[in-house]
Amino acid sequence: MRGGPGDAERRQRWGRLFEELDSNKDGRVDIRELRQGLARLGGGDPDRGAQQGIPPEGDTDPDGGLDLEEFILYLQEREQRLLLLFHSLDRNQDGQIDVSEIQQSFRALGISISLEQAEKILHSMDRDGTMTIDWQEWRDHFLLHSLENVEDVLYFWKHSTVLDIGECLTVPDEFSEQEKLTGMWWKQLVAGAVAGAVSRTGTAPLDRLKVFMQVHASKTNRLNILGGLRSMIQEGGVRSLWRGNGINVLKIAPESAIKFMAYEQIKRAIRGQQETLHVQERFVAGSLAGATAQTIIYPMEVLKTRLTLRRTGQYKGLLDCAWQILEREGPRAFYRGYLPNVLGIIPYAGIDLAVYETLKNQWLQQYSHDSADPGILVLLACGTISSTCGQIASYPLALVRTRMQAQASIEGAPQLSMLGLLRHILSQEGVRGLYRGIAPNFMKVIPAVSISYVVYENMKQALGVTSR
User: Fold this and answer.
1) What average pLDDT does range 336-355 have in this prediction?
2) What are the EF-hand domain coordinates in residue numbering (predicted)?
């Protein structure tokens, strides 16, 4: 910042801006003055821009305002971020952003915008009428206003960190550079893990009923929801409805952590440090990250199924269950059903992501005139619909996986391979047999989504996750 003519010119420009914003001439710029200044300068939402304009980390004194040096330090850091973003959007590196580059940038986020919409965005920043944006125009437009388009879409349209409906096959969310720099990413992951734990505990009876029906329901016994619940309660009491929930909650943390780390590494290998992944690339990276996480924690999946289906007194606990499986069936038993489980990631993640991106795109096209924030009802509806569609597509493979995990513990059950089991189910029960237990699975979606969201928001507040 010191010494060069460019630095001196920049400090003078920032000084003039500070004087213009400091309406009461007290040597400080507060939220009210910034709001009034933004309204005077035009463009963007003054309230929102003001809230972002003076972040807590920019104010070294806890007095709610910035003096000249704090203001200059804040603008210096913001210019560096804006320059990085400008270079990432300037794909041909000619020092200017044109309409096609704006369209490409939105396409990378899975958002299709028309030529007219791209021109409208460009026109809002283009001061010299060239229909291109140079660095100076970009900097002056966004220096105090919020980075609405790119970062807001990433921020508001979080999916997998918000919702937990009992399956961990979703593609991980993208985190903005700002969230990574401030440490908000890990707080959001922790909030998501706690929300998942509470949500799974709240819907555990329905989850156990689903597994019970996947394994035991057939054409002959006509086991239904009420019959399944009655059977479980008669065998083990009301507490037995929560069998298997402990390990189901326990596996959230390692699976989420492994999947996030694997996703970041795969993403870097595909696109490098700066780029946001295209939707197709997110699917590939997310599927590979999911497969990596499932490979590592899969023995816990087998233990979860065995503990969920156990009879009263069959196992003393988690370690006893693991020891009995190892002693009677050998180490290979911990990977029974692994193949249909990994194959199930592809239809689940692919359809979940495709439906979510389609719904997101539709909403942004029609309603995002002033903000990329969809509101909680829209976000939850899109996430619930997309996850449910993914579950329907992958459910037959999930059922085959569960039966393979459980078949060694059921007396008289045939020990079949994935294809053998599929053929057996289709020949004995038809296509309906591949969807045994899907009714309680659907029944738990709305309570699971509701619980996970409420807990997630409260955890964010407790951990100090800042919202825009």
Assistant:
1) 89
2) 9-44, 77-112, 113-148
Residue 336 identity (one-letter amino acid)? R
In the chain, the percentage of residues whose pLDDT exceeds 70 is 76
Residue 291's Cα: distance from chain center in Å?
A: 17
* CA–CA dist 467, 182 (Å, integer): 13
Q: What is the pLDDT of residue 353?
A: 80
Q: Cα torsion at 154, 159, 161, 162 (round to 10°)?
A: 120
- Distance, in Å, from the CA atom of 172 to the CA atom of 290, rounded to the nearest integer, reads 9
Q: Which residue has the higher pLDDT, 353 or 322?
A: 322
pLDDT at 425 over 90: yes
Question: Can you give the pTM of this predicted structure?
Answer: 0.68
For 93-132, give one letter per residue: b (16+ CB within 10 A) or e.
Answer: eeebbbbebbbebbebbbbebeeebbbebbeebbeeeeeb
Q: What is the spatial distance between Cα 277 and Cα 110, in angstroms, rounded to a whole number? A: 9
Q: Which residue has the tokens 């085959």?
A: 400
Going from the C-alpha of 10 to that of each of 3, 7, 140, 152, 213, the distances in angstroms are 11, 5, 12, 28, 69
Q: In whole angstroms, give the CA distance from residue 367 to residue 139.
A: 27
Rounded Cα distance between 294 and 344, Å, is: 11
Round to whole Å and give the CA distance between 162 and 158: 7
- Alpha carbon distance, N-terminus to C-terminus of the chain: 29
Nearest to 358 by CA among 116, 159, 65: 159
Which pair of tokens denotes residue 346? 């592809």
Q: What sign results for the dihedral spanned by CA atoms 251, 203, 314, 211?
A: negative
Q: Are 1 and 13 in contact, with CB atoms under 8 Å apart? A: no
User: How many beta carbons lie within 10 A of that of residue 273, not counting itself?
Assistant: 8
> In angstroms, what CA-CA distances link 11 with 3, 4, 6, 27, 185?
11, 11, 9, 16, 33
- Report the amino acid identity of residue 369: H
CB 408, CB 333: distance < 8 Å:
yes
List the beta strands (DSSP E) in 18-130: 29-30, 65-66, 96-97
Q: Where is average pLDDT lowest: 74-78, 206-210, 428-432?
A: 74-78
**Among 164-173, 321-330, 387-396, 407-416, which is the least confidently predicted range?**
164-173
Q: 3-class DSSP state for residue 144?
A: coil
